[in-house]
Amino acid sequence: MNQFINVLKYAKPYKKFALGHIISNVFFALFSTLSMIALKPMLDVIFKQKEQTQLVKPVYKGLSKLGDYAENYLSFQMHEFTGGDKSKALIFVVGLIIIAFLLKNLFGYLANYFMVFLRNGVVRDLRNAVYKKTVELPLSYFSEQKKGDIMARVTNDVSTLQYSMLPVLELIIREPLTIIFTIIAMLYLSPSLTLFVFIFIPITGLIISRIGKSLKRKSDRVQTEQGTILTILEETLTGLRIIKGFNAEEKFNDKFEESSTRFYGYSNKLMNRQNLASPASEVTGILAIAVLLWYGGQLVLKEGTSGGLDGSSFLVYMGLAYYILTPAKAISRGLYNIKQGNAAAERIQEIIDTPNPLKDKDNAIVKTGFDSNIEFKNISFKYEKEFVLKDFSLTIPKGKTVALVGQSGSGKSTIANLITRFYDINKGQILIDGTDIRDFTTKSLRSQLGIVTQDAILFNDSIKNNLKLGDEHATDEDVIDALKVANAWEFVKDLPEGIETNIGDSGNKLSGGQKQRLSIARAVLKGPPIMILDEATSALDTESERLVQVALENMMKNRTSIVIAHRLSTIQNADEIIVLQKGSIAEKGTHNELIAKNGMYKKLVDMQNLG
User: Fold this and answer.
1) Phi and psi at residue 426, to the nearest 5°
2) Which regions of 398-529 does DSSP assign to beta strands (E)?
3) In whole angstroms, what is the distance from residue 274 CA to residue 211 CA?
4) How far is CA 407 from CA 553, 582, 601, in A?
5) Which one has a higher pLDDT value, 218 or 185?
6) CA distance 126 to 214
7) What 8-state DSSP symbol labels residue 395?
8) Mind listing the pLDDT tens digit for each residue in 477-530?
9) Residues 569, 575, 580, 584, Cα dihedral to 10°
10) pTM above 0.85?
């Protein structure tokens, strides 16, 4: 139930729709009961149980006599209208019934009308909140999570709430009020007979509660398995080239079928438990109705005596008793749905409540420019148990290009992850212009940085829109200028639609070198004072590397650059080269100085056959 209350918090912006829904449901419940009560005077007319001779207008004698007053007032008005004519009286009563049912359905429609905006608004805001938090969370969170499971939470789990827990919003007012109004009418008709209803409702609730006891656990297993299916599907689509190349189709197919079979079994158990709820409550209700028929029949046989019941009242009472089953079943079904949706709500809330360790400080500084230097001051960092960087210190003056080289796992890319604050350091400080980067707002810090990674990450959109991630206000001329700097305009201008050309999923309509040059153009368009190049040419062929290298050199002019390089040919002109080994600085100097030292850098150069 706590999760249901959490979901209800998202209904606050839709108070006016909630108010309209509540008011409409009050009238819906009222006219639902009145439409049944209106049958009594019709039955009285048909069975001639009352002579319409009441000519004196009744007097209101307090709330306790309200039922008698309402009945006598209706009889008085009917006599005034019909003049005692039974046929006209019947037409009068039928008209009342039609009006009551029309009003009931009108307010029912209005209640549903307002609920559409309320329910869909809650779903939209909840889905937006999950996505927003997903984007805000640090990269470290996703290294421990399956992408498919996160996708399942944003899509399937929100949909589960939409069709299980959120429909309960419609029942909160309507069904309880319908039961209350109906019970009031039943108490008026026969207090003793109504005692059976009070016995029947708790029994039904107990049965439904027992049936739904394990629903949360079963629903949780279904939703978790949905996440597994999506994970396998996402991995399959991403790695399809490798799967086919290694003839692993059958292996992945078996893996998917195993998960799908588990989902099949869990779903069967969940649905069968769900299907049991309705017939169980139906049978319980019919048994109660049977008891009411027997006991009520005894009261009818005693009509005219103390505690007796007239025929028309009994028929209306039975109608009300059966009528109350619908809202009672709806409430029990709603409680079941809350149990089912609770698992989905927990999985969604788990993401929303996940703390963000990289959240900005309350008094964070907005960084608007870069003036002097970048300093790594005795920093240490570990992803899990072992430190990747140990007491690393380095100062990069403004306008200089510093290259980081070393074997895989030496900590080169980690430095790029730390200065961009994708991760926070465990010890030490990273300072820009003498201020710890943790004191800046994350947005303003990253606005000073341009990033080009080894994998050219592009999106299924036009070239222009991919580049405008760097500057959403850029003009077409700005985009073209950035493409020229990145040595990319030569191929973009020959495309059918130029910068409006869609490059496909992950830019797969382009070659590796073309994609990388677009990544560089995106960084150029952003125009930051600090550039971070994380092995930007390592995945390219020789000719593409040459073109990209020219683009990189164009981009780095008059900028401070941190170049993480695997191919040492790309960093020979760097102002300083830092050789890393197991998270510490082994050597540093210019290319010629390091060659002269005949140390680790010289060995790396020799392995790549460079002079």
Assistant:
1) -85, -35
2) 401-406, 427-432, 435-436, 449-452
3) 8
4) 24, 9, 10
5) 185
6) 26
7) E
8) 999 988 888 888 888 988 889 999 998 887 888 888 888 888 888 888 888 899
9) 180
10) no
The C-alpha angle 404, 373, 408, rounded to 5 degrees, equals 15
Distance CA 16, CA 117 (A): 10
Distance CA(193)–CA(309), nearest Å, equals 10
- Measured CA to CA, the distance from residue 176 to residue 132 in angstroms comes to 36
User: Residues of 221-260 as b/e, b for ≥16 C-beta within 10 angstroms?
Assistant: bbbbbbbbbbbbebbbeeeeeebeeeeeeeebeeebeebe
pLDDT on residue 611: 45
8 vs 19: CA distance, rounded Å: 14
Burial class (CB in 10 A: 0-12, 13-18, 19+), 114: buried
What residue type is assigned to position 462 of the chain? S
One-letter identity of residue 260: S
For residue 527, what is the DSSP state? -
315 vs 303: CA distance, rounded Å: 14
Report the alpha-carbon distance of residue 169 to residue 596 in Å, rounded: 77
Residue-wise DSSP of 550-585: HHHHHHHTTSEEEEE-SSGGGSTT-SEEEEEETTEE
How large is the average pLDDT for residues 50-56? 50
Which domains does the chain carry?
A: 2-352 (1.20.1560.10), 373-607 (3.40.50.300)
* Packing angle, helices 168-189 and 311-323, rounded to 10: 160
**From the centroid of its chain, how far is CA 254?**
30
Q: Are 178 and 269 in contact (CB under 8 A)?
A: no
Flag the least confident range among 33-37, 399-403, 441-445, 581-585: 33-37
Cβ–Cβ < 8 Å for 571, 608: no
Secondary structure of the chain: what % helix, strand, coil (to 5)? 65, 10, 25
Q: What is each CA distance from 259 to 86, 214, 231, 234, 252, in whole angstroms?
A: 71, 22, 10, 14, 11
Give residue 1's pLDDT band: very low, low, confident or very high (50, 70, 90): low
pLDDT band at 397 (very low <50, low <70, confident <90, very high): very high
Chain centre to alpha carbon of residue 211: 28
Which residues, including other chains, have CB under 8 Å from residue 275's CB and lie 6 or more apart?
none
Residue type, 209: S
